[in-house]
Amino acid sequence: MTDNIHTSPGSAVKMVTECGLRPSPQRIAVAEYVLSHLSHPTADEIFTGLKERYPTLSRTTVYNTLHALAAHGAVLEVNVEPGLTRFDGCTEPHAHFRCVDCSRIFDIRMSGMEFPHEFDISTMQVNLTGHCPECRQAHR
Amino acid sequence: MTDNIHTSPGSAVKMVTECGLRPSPQRIAVAEYVLSHLSHPTADEIFTGLKERYPTLSRTTVYNTLHALAAHGAVLEVNVEPGLTRFDGCTEPHAHFRCVDCSRIFDIRMSGMEFPHEFDISTMQVNLTGHCPECRQAHR
DNA sequence: TATATCTTTGTACTGATTACAAAAATATAA
DNA sequence: TTATATTTTTGTAATCAGTACAAAGATATA
């Protein structure tokens, strides 16, 4: 994984408060998890990952916090896998690529997008599937 | 709705057979429904819409047929609404825009997309949300 | 006609997410 | 501080789209 394990708790607190939420330990933990695990975790993976350190944590709290953060654009929802919402602490515009062989999800650069001006666009998701560079090679 | 109700059954039969499926009445009906209702119906909407004319039709058949068609690229899956798969009989590359006010889904033109060449891209979905031209005006 | 194969159906199940009310924690008022 | 109001968390139950699967039905082949 390319996760950055050295995220300061400060930025998580800031993220939570800037979304209009009181910085409770649980909310800070969720925000910190998303910021420090850029592997596009699901709500359940976040829940499981935090359960050891926060034994009383409930799934509902994780969902509630993620939704609040997402509603304020502090984290992004990723739906590159039908029926499963993943979360991305990186809010820079970028596309997501899911390899149909190894199932890994890659952040990939994108550029040049143009859309009609009549539409007032507030969120954009670009979801790609195919073979990643590694699997592409292994295939032939 | 902007659905074209005058789709020839012939093209539905062709679509089904070209996907390697035997052209059973149910499969033709599903294919025809998707081709003639370009309003991005869900599997359940297709099921309900066909249930009157095909009383014995089952959801499983609808799902199976849609998946087979989608696997061959004859129809596109649209995931602009988390947790819900919609289907699009228009396979020309285009983006989908969901209005957060009126919930309508629009096909919109897109152009200029560029991605790194290392990735072997086989499917692309561009999902946008925001305010559609009408709701944008009503808003102020 | 008998037999094999494919297709459809219906039911049961799964798994992510949501609803909701009780319990706990935190803030405010007296 | 103590009492009270508000917010947050928890845990359970419910929902709902989608899947698994085996039996029934239909179609093709021998």
List its salient traits.
homodimer, 140 residues, alpha+beta, Arc Repressor Mutant, subunit A, 3-stranded mixed beta sheet, two-stranded antiparallel ribbon, 5 strands, 36% helix, 23% strand, disordered N terminus, DNA-binding
Description:
- 2 copies of one chain form a homodimer.
- The first copy, chain A, is α+β, with helices and mostly antiparallel strands.
- The first copy, chain A, has a single domain, classed as Arc Repressor Mutant, subunit A (Orthogonal Bundle).
- The first copy, chain A, is built from 5 helices and 5 strands; from the N terminus they run ααααβββββα.
- Chain A has helices spanning 9-18, 25-36, 43-51, 59-71, 133-138; strands at 76-81, 84-88, 95-99, 105-108, 120-131.
- A 3-stranded mixed beta sheet of chain A has the order 4-3-5. A two-stranded antiparallel ribbon of chain A has the order 1-2.
- Chain A is globular and about 50 Å long.
- Residues 1-5 of chain A have low confidence and may be disordered.
- Chain A binds chain B through residues 77, 79, 82-83, 85, 95, 97, 100, 106, 108-116, 118-133, 136, and chain B through 77, 79, 82-83, 85, 95, 97, 100, 106, 108-116, 118-133, 136.
- Strand 5 of chain A pairs antiparallel with strand 5 (120-131) of chain B, so a sheet runs across the interface.
- Chain B binds a DNA duplex (30 and 30 nucleotides) through residues 21-22, 24, 26-27, 42-44, 56-61, 63-64, 82-85.
